Amino acid sequence: MSKPDYQNKIQKRLDQVAIAFSGLCTIHCLLTPIFFIFFPVLGATFITGEDFHHLLLWLILPVSLFALLLGYFRRRDKVALSLGAIGLSQLIIAAIVGNELFNELSEVAVTSLGSLILIAGHIRNYQLCVCDECKA
């Protein structure tokens, strides 16, 4: 396997993992309030606290940065990088100062929108990687 093929494989896998983490973040933000209604005991668990948000951010941040930067340095696609930067910025802002800047509903909206924008960046990055394989 040549170096570009290996880099493509790594980048595709990183994009897939980043999409999964960002999707988990979106699902968590949207479904946690619903789960509270049906399972109030969840309020006492780790899943609902700020620590969980920070854990997700620490998972999303390095994987996303590495995948997006690897894709950018290989293809110079500014759209994927811009979408990723906007999405990551929203997630970071929501995680760090979301409680001070937003009410609960706004924080969920900012986080979910940031995750979806980040996912769009990774999907574009992934598609460009697949397109590279088609040309080879």
Ordered list of secondary-structure elements with their pairings:
Layout: H1 3-38, H2 50-75, H3 78-101, H4 104-135
Helix pairs in contact: 1-2, 1-4, 2-3, 2-4, 3-4
Question: Could you please describe the fold and organization of this structure?
Answer:
This protein has 136 residues and is mostly helical. Helix content is 87%, strand content 0%. It contains 4 helices and no strands. α2 packs parallel to α4. The mean pLDDT is 82.
Derived from helix and strand composition plus strand pairing, the structural class reads: mainly alpha
- Rg on CA atoms, Å: 17 Å
Order of helices and strands: HHHH
The major beta sheet can be summarized as: none
How much helical structure, as a percent, in the residues?
over 70%
Number of strands: 0
Query: Uncertain runs with pLDDT below 50, 5 residues or more?
Result: none
End-to-end separation in angstroms reads: 13 Å
Into which percentage range does the β-strand content fall? under 5%
Question: Helical element count?
Answer: 4
Mean pLDDT: 82
Shape: elongated
Main attributes?
4 helices; mainly alpha; 136 residues; 87% helix
Summary, kept brief:
With 136 residues, the chain is an all-alpha fold. The chain has helices at 3-38, 50-75, 78-101, 104-135.
